Amino acid sequence: xxxxxxxxxxxxxxxxxxxxxxxxxxxxxxxxxxxxxxxxxxxxxxxxxxxxxxxxxxxxxxxxxxxxxxxxxxxxxxxxxxxxxxxxxxxxxxxxxxxxxxxxxxxxxxxxxxxxxxx
Length: 119
Ligand SMILES: CC(C)(COP(=O)(O)OP(=O)(O)OC[C@H]1O[C@@H](n2cnc3c(N)ncnc32)[C@H](O)[C@@H]1OP(=O)(O)O)[C@@H](O)C(=O)NCCC(=O)NCCS
Description:
Elements: E1 3-12, H1 13-23, H2 25-31, H3 34-41, H4 46-66, E2 78-82, E3 88-92, E4 99-106, E5 110-118
Antiparallel strand pairs: 1-5, 2-3, 4-5
The protein binds coenzyme A (COA).
């Protein structure tokens, strides 16, 4: 296994709330997969989980671009679901090659993610 790229990102939870308010479900559907929406909406504070996923997608995009890939990556092509222990697992629904590891943390106001692309 070799590391091909790394990325990190921080997202203010209120930014996600503003986008939801302005663009409604169109925003969610453009950025998140059905599975991600179902996961976040099952939580008491969906906005922090959406913010965590948004940060994760930006972190993953940075890791992928760092590897030399230079096409647009629609965020809905990156899916982050949790396994039965709660660990975030990434699926890249595009032609990007490699496995992407991601870690997410969030507090009330901010979410942070870090990603590693390996092959
Ligand atoms: C995993 C753990 C360290 C997370 O700490 P936390 O402060 O609650 O988490 P944060 O608020 O910083 O981050 C939440 C994110 O952590 C991630 N996460 C949750 N459980 C996780 C786990 N087991 N491993 C890795 N990441 C985990 C998720 O991505 C979550 O965000 P999401 O639900 O929006 O996807 C803590 O819940 C813990 O120690 N749990 C016990 C786990 C355990 O006993 N597992 C059994 C192992 S055999």
